[in-house]
Amino acid sequence: MSAFIDARTIPSGTILQPDLAIIGGGPAGITLALALARAPFKMMLFESGGMDFDAKTQSLYAGTVSGTSYLPLDASRMRYLGGGSNHWGGWCRPLDPIDFEQRDWVAHSGWPFGIAELKPYFARAQALVEAGAWRYDTAASAMTAAAKPLPLGAGGVYTSWFQFSKQRDSILPTHFGERYAAELKRVANLKVFLHANATKLHLAANGASLEQFDVATLNGRRFVVRPKTTVLALGAIENARLMLASRDVAEAGVGNTNDLVGRFFADHPIPRDTATLVSFAGDIASYYFNAWDMDGALLRAAFAPSDDFKRSRKVLGSLTTVESPVELDELGKAAVVTTALALGVDASSAKAFSIGCGLELQPDPERRLTLTHEHDLLGMPRLKLSNQVADTDFARYRLTMKELGRQLLAARSGMIRLNYDSRDEWLSALDWGDHHLGTTRMHRDPKQGVVDANSRVHGMANLFVAGSGVFPTYGASNPTMNLVALTLRLADHLKAMRR
Amino acid sequence: MSDERISRRTMVLGGGVAAALGATALGLTLPRLLAHRYAPTPYDDLLQQLTDRDVAIQVGRAVRARLTKFDDKKVARELRQRFERRNLAEVLDADSAEGRLAEAGGWVLPRSLTDLCALAAG
């Protein structure tokens, strides 16, 4: 068992030479290190933070945002061991098969492989995020037998099921740093360096491989790492920043020959109170509001468009949840009374509920990260996020909600009010999931992607990227469990490379 | 006669209030209890299907507010075709099944219902 190493104690000028360097100690970096335990190579993991939040370290994340409002860049991430999982809500759901497909109505869509490539890794990913047995949509019959669901007529929206990273005592969910610190210390072929900030990647003169990278600490130490292979696992925003900021050989930055690094940034918009759902019968099952425990798996219902509906109506993914009871205004009461009377339905106990959602954005090369002329405490250029959401992204979600309303009417079980129509209305309700995606997208063609199907940076022999930054299309599912599965696949690839 | 005995006048007033409260509890609003008779329209054969016309008018106003043009005669003609040999609920079910929907202040409703309400509000 080896303790973590405080990089602030490493003498400046030191040269470290691991077989594999993992830069970043979030869910992807930790997953990779654990998956490669017992592999026949020496690993080092470099994490910027320590075991807890530190304001000075966190300030290294600061940047600017223009366009559609977004969280400050130093508020939507967590810079200490465990990374984004330190403020994770624990929501899990596998991507849908269609998320991997190239679709003619979604520009820049499609992964280099289908969901079948990830399926072998889902069980282990599920175990790492501690979300209990794999249930998700297979839980539908058991859940709806336990409590009747809101009836929906046949159509394009169905009741889908989230699972949650497991509750231990009062702690929810799995914070990877805290949870796996002891296991990381037990990995014999791994050294973990805390307070170690990678500040620049140095390529070989021909630009075809990574020779070394610089590490700096906030107490002024600077040393060098010369790994045989390197995996960037800093998160979608910081991976792009480090690649763009490393320009000593490649003028545009590492892996950026085709000006793709930092582009296609995405997150899941979470507009609040997007709709009002009325149940004519009144109360609805509590699994729409709260997670239910099914043999240790925590499940919560959501409304999702089917893949067939997405194809036929050309919409993207969304996951809609019932949030809380609301009062209807006079028009709402009139609409409910009139509709119920016309359908011959008893609505004397009707209740209304606020609806929330997370929705998928269309890939957009202009939603992007670029370097600014400002620098952080370690001399790294800060980032600017140019954020934008297309009207079609809102319009597509509205189509899905309208379909849900149609299905409620068809079942004579309820109805829906769409609360937003204009762009201003949508933007006024906008929040974000902190699901950073897409800045180093995966594609077989170097002109369309930064990394190949194995997450290797195009044109680079020994540099890989892990995490949701490689997702070329995003789906609506929360990324953590999926990126953990993708990282496990990367681990297998790295092991195979060594053989 | 004792002062504590309830007069006939008090009983009548009290009974009226109780009936009104009961009706309100059942969802029948005061305006409906006091509903006036409507002037005849060319669409009364259609509008008689609306159980609560006052409430439907509120919905109809929201429908008309969203439209720049509403051709009452044409809409009535189409509604009559839809209502041939079918009752209101059946027509609305068909609307929902076939995706014939419209909005009233954001409420997603069967198109025939919004048409009826808009006619009522005309």
List the helices and strands and how they pair.
The complex is a heterodimer of chains A (about 500) and B (about 120).
Chain A: E1 5-6, E2 15-16, E3 20-23, H1 27-35, E4 43-46, H2 55-58, E5 64-67, E6 91-92, H3 119-128, H4 140-146, E7 157-164, H5 176-186, E8 190-194, E9 197-203, E10 210-216, E11 222-225, E12 229-232, H6 236-245, E13 275-279, E14 292-294, E15 297-305, H7 307-313, E16 318-326, H8 330-343, E17 351-359, E18 368-375, E19 381-387, H9 391-410, E20 414-418, H10 423-428, E21 463-465, H11 479-498
Helix pairs in contact in A: 1-5, 1-11, 3-11
Chain B: H1 8-25, H2 30-33, H3 44-47, H4 53-66, H5 72-82, H6 88-98, E1 101-104, E2 107-110, H7 111-120
Antiparallel strand pairs in B: 1-2
Helix pairs in contact in B: 4-7, 5-7
List the keywords.
heterodimer; A: 499 residues; alpha/beta; six-stranded parallel sheet; four-stranded mixed sheet; 11 helices; 24% helix; B: 122 residues; mainly alpha; 2 domains; two-stranded antiparallel ribbon; 2 strands; globular
Explain what the structure shows:
- The complex is a heterodimer of chains A (499) and B (122).
- In chain A, 24% of the residues lie in helices and 22% in strands.
- Chain A starts with a strand and ends with a helix.
- Chain A is built from 11 helices and 21 strands.
- In chain A, the strands form 5 sheets. A 6-stranded parallel β-sheet of chain A has the order 1-8-4-3-12-21, covered by helices on one side. Chain A has a 4-stranded mixed β-sheet with strand order 2-11-10-9. Chain A has a 4-stranded antiparallel β-sheet with strand order 6-7-15-14.
- By secondary structure, chain B is mostly helical.
- Chain B folds into 2 domains: 35 residues; 78 residues, no CATH class.
- A two-stranded antiparallel sheet of chain B has the order 1-2.
- Classes of the chains: A alpha/beta (499), B mainly alpha (122).
